[in-house]
Amino acid sequence: ITAIAGASGNGQLTLGELLCGMRRLDAGRLQLPEQGVARIPEDRHGTGVIGDLPVWENAVLERLRSPVFRRGPWIRRQAARAHARAIEEAFDVRGAGLDGPARALSGGNMQELILGRALLAPDRSAPRLIVAHQPTWGLDVGAVAYVQEQLLAARDDGAAVLLISDDLDEVLAL
Fold first, then answer.
1. Mean pLDDT of 26-43
2. Which DSSP string corresponds to 30-80?
3. What single-letter DSSP state applies at residue 101?
C-alpha cells in the first residue's frame, strides 16, 4: 500500500483519474497493465454509481466490455445479475435488492457495492492495482473498518493499493 496524503484539491483527483483511464495525459507517457486496475472513486454518489440504475447494473457497470457480460451489443443479463448477487453476498450489500435503484443504498452499502465491483472480477481474478480515492469518506466507524479490512485483504492477495486520502489517521492505519 502506497499512500498519497494531503489536502484535497492538489491534483489527487486528476492522478486517480489518469491511473484509472478516466482522463488522458496532456503530455508524457503512463504505462499500466491493460487489465487489473480497480477503481474506488472519491465521490460514490457522483461517479461511483449511477443512482437511477438498479444495483445489478451498477455492479457490472465498469466491466461491460467483458465477454462474460456482453455478446455483441447485448448485455448478458443473467450473467450480470448472477455476478451482482455474488457481490451482494460477498460484500454484504443490503437495502435496495438487485432491482432497486443504487441511490436507495446507504453510503456504507453503496461503498460496499463499489468495493465488490472493484475487487470481485467475474473470473474471480484479483486486481493488480487498486486506486482507492477517499475510500472511507463519510462512512460510519463500522463501515470504515470494513473498507480498510478489504483493502488490507486485497494487499495480502497480491494487489498493489494506491490510497489517496486527506485523512492522516486512515493513511497511518493502512
1. 85
2. ----SS-EEEE-S-IIIII--TTSBHHHHHHGGGTTSTTTEETTEE-HHHH
3. B
Contact call for residues 58 and 117 (beta carbons, < 8 A): yes
Indicate yes or no: pTM above 0.70: yes
Mean pLDDT across the chain, nearest whole number? 91
Closest CA to 42 of 12, 10, 7: 12
Q: Is 164 helix (H, G, I), strand (E, B) or coil?
A: strand
Residues near 78 by beta carbon (within 8 Å), at least 6 away in sequence: none
Give pLDDT tens digits for 72-102. Answer: 999 999 999 999 999 999 999 998 899 999 9
Q: CA-CA distance, 125 to 111, in Å (whole number)?
A: 20
